[in-house]
Design goal:
It is globular and about 40 Å long. The chain has a 6-stranded parallel sheet. The N terminus and C terminus are likely disordered. The longest helix is centred in the N-terminal third of the chain and has 15 residues. The protein is 40% helix and 10% strand. It has 9 helices and 6 strands. By secondary structure, it is α/β, with parallel strands linked by helices. Helix 4 runs parallel beside helix 5 and helix 6 runs antiparallel to helix 9.
């Protein structure tokens, strides 16, 4: 019988991007998920999960200082129609925030950008962890409840100020710490990320 402890991600291909981050700019990468899930008339999301998710995105953006927001690039979904409701909100409420509809692979961005912000629990966060790019995440309980097998690892990230409960607290921390490279590249942060990755991936994958 298969008795090996379940892990959240199992694809070894992720390990190919390990320590690939070699920044070519001082920009902050923030992928936005689910923006294509607005209905065909671009008027409202399909469920409350999307409302809660976008609420935290906007709370994060509203609480960034100019030093951080001026470096921020929102990476939207590929092939996203420009009539999308999320883009309309960005143009109206955050005219100074730069966004892009990407043509390149996310791994290229993880290699070239200086910082990463995760806002949804996805494989992209794991890819960012593996790449070595400095990062923070915010995952609100209204749209993210971790599997009980992995909850303690997410709680560990909170203690290390890598994961935050909401967009506002993440923005506040980033405003104060963004320029502190000693913090982001400290042994404590590196070990915390390594601990998280090793317990999310199968232990047979050596990191």
């Amino acid at each position: 019988k298969f008795k090996q402890k379940q892990k959240q991600y199992t694809d070894k291909i992720f390990l190919r991007i390990q320590n690939s981050n070699k920044p070519k700019n001082n920009k902050i990468l923030m992928p936005i998920s689910f923006v294509s899930n607005f209905n065909k008339h671009y008027e409202f999301p399909r469920s409350s999960d999307y409302i809660f998710y976008y609420r935290e995105i906007f709370n994060f953006l509203e609480n960034l200082n100019d030093n951080v927001s001026n470096k921020l690039v929102l990476r939207l979904m590929p092939n996203l129609p420009k009539k999308n409701f999320f883009i309309k909100i960005l143009n109206k409420n955050f005219p100074n925030i730069y966004y892009e509809i990407p043509e390149d692979n996310i791994n290229t961005s993880l290699k070239n950008y200086s910082f990463f912000i995760g806002s949804i629990n996805s494989t992209t966060i794991l890819q960012a962890m593996l790449s070595g790019i400095p990062l923070i995440m915010f995952l609100h309980k209204d749209y993210f409840i971790p599997n009980h097998n992995f909850k303690k690892y997410y709680e560990f990230l909170k203690k290390k100020h890598i994961l935050f409960n909401n967009g506002k607290s993440a923005a506040s921390f980033l405003n104060n710490k963004f320029e502190n490279k000693n913090f982001w590249y400290s042994a404590s942060i590196k070990n915390a990320r390594k601990y998280f990755i090793k317990n999310i991936l199968y232990n047979k994958y050596k990191l």
